């Protein structure tokens, strides 16, 4: 099991007034442990970049050449002018890049929003170089609760009340048979579901959910219960999301 060194997520994203998601820091940490900074080629794709803050943080931390794509243009004009990231509009199922273009791909809490998840993985595998890395995070379909103690990423995340509403909505969707990604529920995937989709392209799949939880919540309110939550027999339903680092063979 990986043992991760701390990464200062605030430092990773100095241009964002709201703290960057820990996923960017975790991704950078994993790549650093794999000798990223000694690589000659450092090309990264952020697939589903949203407002672009995570892509900018990753570029700064990894000193990489970064392309970022989303289905619509959510990036503000100021960030476009100041960020060295190349932002583009496009579908993860039809990327505007040549085969084997990237050394690493950050695909974080996006796949559950995609109409054809399998097609998106086919396309990401196509643009990833041999021995390249793909990092995926997605909601855990088996979760009992969505995350309450997460880092703030938007104004919606500012209160526990809003998080409670998210949890109640999840359970309402479960009880009414609507807890499905295609119905907008952001249900995510179980580990076995995602693993099955990844097996087509990636022989090496390192499940890092427990390490991510330790990384993200090490200094938070839930830190005292992390040893319990990260036990394998509990993590499968206690983890709000699942995380995997894959290598292209």
From TrEMBL:
Enzyme Commission no: 2.1.1.-
SUPFAM superfamilies registered for this protein in UniProt: S-adenosyl-L-methionine-dependent methyltransferases
Keyword Nucleotide-binding attached: no
Tagged with keyword Methyltransferase: yes
InterPro entries: Methyltransf_11 (IPR013216), SAM-dependent_MTases_sf (IPR029063)
Record-linked Pfam families: Methyltransf_11
Alphabetically ordered keywords of this record: Methyltransferase, Transferase
GO MF annotations in UniProt: S-adenosylmethionine-dependent methyltransferase activity
GO biological process: methylation
Domain Methyltransferase type: 47-136
Protein name: Putative S-adenosylmethionine-dependent methyltransferase
Native source organism of the sequence: Neorhodopirellula pilleata
């Amino acid at each position: 099991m990986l043992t991760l060194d701390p990464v200062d997520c605030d430092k990773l994203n100095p241009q964002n007034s709201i703290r960057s998601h820990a996923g960017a820091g975790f991704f950078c940490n994993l790549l650093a442990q794999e000798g990223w900074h000694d690589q000659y080629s450092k090309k990264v794709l952020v697939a589903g970049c949203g407002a672009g803050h995570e892509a900018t943080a990753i570029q700064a931390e990894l000193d990489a050449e970064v392309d970022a794509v989303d289905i619509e243009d959510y990036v503000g004009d100021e960030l476009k002018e100041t960020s060295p990231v190349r932002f583009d509009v496009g579908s993860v199922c039809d990327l505007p890049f040549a085969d084997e273009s990237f050394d690493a791909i950050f695909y974080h809490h996006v796949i559950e929003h995609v109409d054809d998840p399998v097609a998106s993985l086919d396309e990401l595998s196509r643009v990833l170089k041999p021995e390249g890395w793909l990092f995926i995070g997605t909601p855990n379909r088996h979760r009992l609760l969505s995350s309450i103690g997460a880092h703030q990423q938007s104004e919606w995340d500012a209160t526990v009340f809003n998080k409670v509403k998210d949890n109640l909505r999840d359970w309402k969707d479960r009880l009414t048979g609507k807890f499905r990604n295609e119905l907008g529920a952001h249900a995510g995937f179980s580990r076995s579901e995602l693993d099955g989709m990844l097996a087509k392209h990636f022989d090496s799949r390192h499940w890092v959910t427990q390490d991510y939880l330790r990384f993200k919540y090490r200094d938070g309110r839930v830190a005292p219960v992390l040893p319990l939550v990260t036990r394998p027999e509990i993590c499968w339903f206690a983890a709000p999301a699942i995380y995997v680092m894959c290598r292209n063979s």
